Fold each of these.
Amino acid sequence: MYTETKGKTLEEMDRVFGSHTGEQDQLLLEEAQRDVGLTAYLDGQTGSHDQGFSRGVGTGVNMVELA
């Protein structure tokens, strides 16, 4: 008997095969986003890590200023 995998997400596939790689990758990504201030920036908060960000005017794209 085989498990149906068509249409499954990568996280669901991890569970099927007993892997936790996807969950670990997601946690690492969230931690990195917090560390660089991206989470606070996207939430509209200000903090010490997000001072280098500015919004690209009229472009609909977020720009990053390098100091």
Note: The CA atoms of residues 11 and 53 lie 32 Å apart.
Amino acid sequence: MGWRGSRTARTIRPMTTDQLAQNKQLVEAFIQELFTKGDLEAVDRYLDPNLVNHDAPFPAAPEGPEGMRLAARKYREALPDWHSDIEQLIAERDLVVEVFTASGTHHGELMGVPGTGKTLTLRGINIFRIDDGRIVERWGQLDQLGILQQLGLVPSA
């Protein structure tokens, strides 16, 4: 977890306003299709097969695109109405920062906890690096403690 450098050296190219807007649209489409609509094939359309996911979406998640696919599957199975509300998208060069709040009704097992009927909320920040119309890197910070507290796995402060 954390800010490790890219595995390969890269040249940062200046981007036009249109390119920045396209990068933001790509990230928004990916998030909405994968997490809000539950379209697991969005992983294949938007993520580079060699995606470097610097921060796994949950402990023991597979590396690369499959970790994102599994995270979406687990959340959608446990919370069928799971949706992500993007609060901010900020683009600079080849990076897009997403600030979001996601929520859904807990109907199925999640992290060993059977459905409770409660609404669960997850806040987070993701940074995506885009290259040639594909997401090639992701850094993320999710409020995992908040989810654990909502599930009753960790006491609330």
Note: Residues 17-36 form the longest helix (20 residues).
Amino acid sequence: MKLQKRPHGLRTAAERQVWSMFRQLSTAALVVLVALGRLSLATAQESNQAGKPKQITNSIGMKLTLVPSGQFLMGSGESAEAAAAFFNRTYGGNLKADNFKNEHPQHLVRITKPFYLGTCHVTRGQFRQFVADTGYKTDAEKGANPGAHGLDIDKKEFGYIANYSWRNPGFEQTDEHPVICVSWNDAVAFCKWLSGKEGKTYRLPTEAEWEYACRAGTTTRYNSGDDPETLAKTGNVADAMAKAKFPSLSGIKAGDGYAFTSPVGSFQPNAFGLYDMHGSAWQWCADWYDAEYYAVSPADDPTGPDSGSGRVHRGGSWFTGPADARSAGRSPATPDHRGNGTGFRVAMTQ
């Protein structure tokens, strides 16, 4: 069964509702096929990536991993109400079902071509090469309102800190840590520079590519399973160590060894060989954000709505709880937003 692309001209609420119902019914039929074993959630099409190395290293020392073409169910397979109830019951807090509704309806997505994705986040050292080569000033370093959002390390509260930037995120980092306090605009500028330097197309991954790569064939909350405590081995989220420093944080009970960001590649990779898809730093995606986009998304290589006010970022960070770090979790921020929990990784197509 092939999901139909959204017809042009669906403007009224009634038309959108009818189309959404059709998509949900089509996806339900596909789920049945999956259960019958007639369709794989992530079928790597070897003929499409024959001859491509599984990992490459570019001129700035960045490793990129080949992500095969395939298909998967995008979005949450858990109802918004069930997700909110689970995390409130397990970790406390006051999450609402509305916090999770943008992950529905779950729908089939096909990634029709293989692509390379950064094996890890872009590091401070790699970003430093970009700045040294171009003299670039980040959004946190220019304009009438310099600084970055995030967790104020001294005050132990969230706010806007005027002297925070990728050079000074409020805590010590080495060049092997993910670069943070960078906006979507900064990430796109980095990709443009790297494309020119390498003679290849570097860009931010689409939201669909990101989730497909994060899941790596899994259908659970995380690529490590449904239990948030497994994140202690696969991702750097708010944990016992972070909570000891910042009691207001809500995190997993286990300790992952880091209170702040961790050097890239410190945890176990997923089945595609990608590190830190959960936690350490939010990861910018190319797409504009629309909470209702899933109801009208095309099946093949969706790229998000044509316009919006916020861009998507995924994966959670060192100070966010396990709900934010889920494979299906999605959140918007303005393109000039920067925070000491926000970074990025790049995609590359030849």
Note: The first strand starts at residue 55 and ends at 57.
